[in-house]
């Protein structure tokens, strides 16, 4: 992937996306530790920097201001070396990412995870339906070149460990391609 000036970043940018509860933050944190890339949790960033337009009572979440989020991340993303963790993917500039990872979790596992978080019945149902219909994988495929979008199973700690190992290998190969 190249930047606008034609020079390749020294380190890749990775987007880790998926339905809430699929392990995005756990995977992203472990991958950041393994690769020394910067983990950016967009949900936390939105709260810390007030990059939202208020609270949505019905969805029980902040209504993020996508333009403010992109403005906040622009310089970091151009420099490379970031793992961006967020459930949405379609509003980020395509040029930012070298790999888009969509985590997917079995519905019964996901149901338990979200129930344990105390999600309301409507929020729980909404997220389970999103996972059943593969909404976030489809969104990623529509927003980025299909050859950089990868879906990974994330049902348990073994899956997460395997994913982190494989993604760490990908980062090493991206930074130092085989001759």
UniProtKB/TrEMBL annotation:
Residues 41-64 are annotated as: NMPbind. Belongs to the adenylate kinase family. AK6 subfamily. Residues 1-27 are annotated as: Disordered. Keywords: ATP-binding, Cytoplasm, Kinase, Nucleotide-binding, Nucleus, Ribosome biogenesis, rRNA processing, Transferase. This is Adenylate kinase isoenzyme 6 homolog. Gene3D superfamilies: P-loop containing nucleotide triphosphate hydrolases (3.40.50.300). It catalyses: AMP + ATP = 2 ADP; ATP + H2O = ADP + phosphate + H(+). It comes from Ziziphus jujuba (Chinese jujube). ATP binds at residues 21, 23-26, 117. Residues 17-27 have a biased composition (Low complexity). Pfam families: AAA_18. Residues 116-126 are annotated as: LID.
